[in-house]
Fold each of these.
Amino acid sequence: MYDEDDLSLLDAGVELESPLDHIKPLTAESEVVKPDPELMLALLENPQSQQRMLAARAFCDIQDQRAIPHLIRLLTDNCPLVRVSAAYAIGRNPSQNAVEPLITQLKRDFNGYVRKGIVWALGNCRDRRSLVPLTDALRTDISAVRLWAASALAQMAGVSYEAVVGAIPALIEALVQDPIAAVRSNSAWTIGQLCKELPSNVVYATAIDALIQAFAEDKDLGVREDAKASLLGVGDPRGLQLIETLEQEGWF
């Protein structure tokens, strides 16, 4: 869907970062004075793009459902900085009403930064409708978006068993085949999270096999470590036995 030329839209030094690296979590005990929601709601309609952007960013710190219709509208703003800010804000104020607009914009937005924010927001919305666009992004988008799509799919654990099962094939494919180590690492982590929600069936066994393969064969140490951490987190006997055997042999 998108070719690697889209990477020109991203800073190579930060393209694999997560939005969570820059957006601090909301805490009830926060001592930081938050923006005035009434003022920020008004600024979302400001004719100046800079003001709209700042207002949208404010809703990364403010939880207020009144902002949702405005943020949805800003997903199609002419300014990409406004669009990406709106996507992040929706991720902090997830809404079922935002899912379809997010999916639509993900399909058509040319800007890699915006698509990154959208996949993060789609994950946070925890909606079954997000499964297909997130797996498509993991398979076809630029590396930066694939990285976040892999992480966002972990949220399917809070959606349904069917959503978990639907996410596993794309994650296994990415873990085994993606050329970017960071994407493989995130896929390994997400598979581990989803396996905790699965019974011991064929899907579970296939996912564990993929983690074992990555742990034993991936050329990147970080990927192997993440696969190992997932196996340990799931507590699968086969994975635990392999880890013990390889460590006794001084494999690392």
Amino acid sequence: MSMKQIETLVFDYGGVIVNIDDVSVVKAMESLGVTAFKRLIHVRKIKRLMHQYINGLVAEAETLKEMLSLCRKGTTTGDIEKVLEELCGNLPVERLEALVKLRKRYKVYLLSNINDTLWQKSVSQMNQLGYSTEEMFDEVFLSYAMRKEKPSVEIYEEMTQKTGLNPATTLYFDDRAENAEAGRNFGFQSVLVKTNHLEEHQEWQEIIKNIKE
């Protein structure tokens, strides 16, 4: 299918629009006393807790309390929250500018597994750069608000019902293989993005070229 037939764009947030730095997250965990040894032993627990924290389907307080048990004595939930702000990452202003322009030609949606805290911080990051979510997206679909998360088919179904998009003419960008695959199974034209490197993908270059023409 040619890019000319694409009508709708769906973007993941972390690693696609915002650059996420895993190294800073690891450093931050070390600063809380979650040593490499602890990380190895508790790798599944940490993964689950990070996942749980990010997608916001479990009460944040509950997740933070459980995280506390992995940190050195004397750590507070406030300390953990500061560290988790690292997850907000760094927003390249060129991408935000491109999204505004893309809306002239396409319907543009955001579909993200994210919690309330991180999303509010992300919105204020965008605002500081002079952009609002209303300018960049026709609508945002966030796991914590929907009580659903990618890659479950329900989240794609709800977005489709609410927007009336046609999956066949939708280009979907996500940097997690299981999400990109779920999108493809749902009928989207799926692009597995190399984390933090959206610009390297031909599909991105083509839609950008389309708005210039």
Amino acid sequence: MKIFLHPLHSLRRVVLVSFLLGAAVAHADNADITELLKSNQSQQALKLLDQRLAATPKDPQLRFLQGVALAMDNKNKEAIDTFSRLTEEYPELPEPYNNLAVLYANQNQLDKSRQALEQAIRTNPSYSTAHENLGDIYAKLASQAYSKALQLDGSHADSVKPKLALIHDLFSTGPGKAKAAGPATPSVSAPQPPAQAAVVAVAPAAPVAPVAAAPEPASAPATATPATPAAPAAAKAAAETAGTPATAAAKVETASAGKSAPAATEAVEAAVHAWAKAWESKNMAGYLAAYSPDFQTPGKQSRKRWEEERRVRIVGKSAISVQLSDLTVQMPQPDQATVRFSQHYKAGNLDTRSRKTLLLEQRSGQWLIVRETVGN
């Protein structure tokens, strides 16, 4: 979906559709609302949302849908307030940041738009929609700077005008040709497959904020045991150590050059399940020990700051459930492994699913995470 800006006209693939529209996370209870939004019946959707939010005012999915409906109904201030509150309470969800950026861009508040998109990318470095939208904002800022340069000194016309023309052509040609400039009107697209990660709210990547450390309702679900496929004995044993301090939760038997491929795979699986168990049980010592000293933190933030953010967003939850399924391991080298799986994350009112990829390396007898991406 697109939103149109003047003079650049377009901010591509804007996520003004709830993560409920993703096929993997659709909630039947709200199917009627999503259908109304897809058919641009925002006022009818708002009436239903008001009724349901009266019963469950803290429901994040309903509140996200409300923000979508408000934006579609051109109630931008209310939409901004709704998405802003969601970013405060659920900072691991990139879509609210992205939608804030779109609404700010419509008001020509480009610095705020840029900051919101950068936060979305910090939250989920694999969020391609935010990367593309950020590029569009940079282009808009460049256009303004070039225009200002011409205004201040017309002698620069020979060098500046070709650059302005390039920016104009970028947004006015090709398959994504923009509509004529006019009022910015967000539109809701049809559901897309979860793999595209454009409309699906991803579960928090471990290094990227799970859920904000906000108070949870008393009815928050109790911590559940991950519903993974039958794990090897070593994986189960490692997971059971999650409540122990320091590196015990992450330390597992490793595959040396003399061990068979199945044994190496089993050790990698054990490390991943132990990491998930430590996260679920809020065992920060075991959780942080699962990451290599060389771990690529999101947004290039310092390791210390990343650990502090993770601690706040994990320990503050009343209950967390992290369930892994469809786990596959590829080992291009004896000391490297790429693990892909489906993750089902629940904390309080938040219930999300995503695909995740971990790159692990064997270090001093342990398999440690060096890179983590969501949506792959």
Amino acid sequence: MNQRTQSDTTDNELTLQQQKFHAAKKSTLISVIVNMLLSLWQIIIGFISHSQGLIADGIHTLSDLIADFVVLIANKKSHKQPDDDHPYGHFRYENGASLILGVILLIVGVGMIWSATQKMLNPELIQEVHTIALVAALVSLIAKESLFRYMLRVANQVNSSMLVANAWHARSDAASSLVVAIGIIGSLCGFKIFDPIAALIVGTFVFRMGYKFTYQSMQDLMDKGADEETLQEIRTVLDGIDEIKGFHDLKTRKSGDFYLVDVHLEVDGNLSIIAGHEIAVNVRDKLMENPQILNVMTHLDPYDKECIH
């Protein structure tokens, strides 16, 4: 039977981690460049066309730059090698970054809802703009939506929750551009109230996304266990190992996008220490064939068929 050696396991883990690191770095740098150009484009055209909405959207785009730099810093920190103070590595920098991005989405959502409400209560605050503002808003919308789809595809390829959060932050900016475009169209058609209504809807959407990412990252930082699908995959692997009679006290927790697994293995109590050690190593290797499992801690218990776990 072919088994992975400890060296093979470590190499595969490093390969996955390196892929995530380089994917995050590349996609985030692209996002930085796009957002810098879009922000300048929106603000300049906003002043030329007298569009306060476009200027505000340009400033909103700057919030993506803050998020991008947060991701870059977290991506670099999270892939530092384990040390004496952090024996399991620094992957939770990613969970912290996801929390920060979630909070940013919450703040942006609240700001959009507040602004929309104020405009609905005070329609005179909605200013008419020139047609060039609509062109600028549509160009920004297409660019931001394309950036979102690119970043989400990369995030899914490397299975990074931090990159998923950053991608949806880019989508919130695309939603903001959509609001501006609708507002400008409404203004040109004489229906100024369309702008605050659309802003209220999108602001609520952004707020909900912020809540989702904030809640999830908080759960991960508080050692939430793996989802039932992942747990079932682990149980299936354990059930398929003939050397163990059973298992109990299976526990998991997240570190970044990886899982730490603890499990008690039930083995023949008459086995030697060496034989028990070999079984534990085999179980660890089998479970770590799943690239999302960072480490496995096992404990051997003598098998008692009368015990019910």
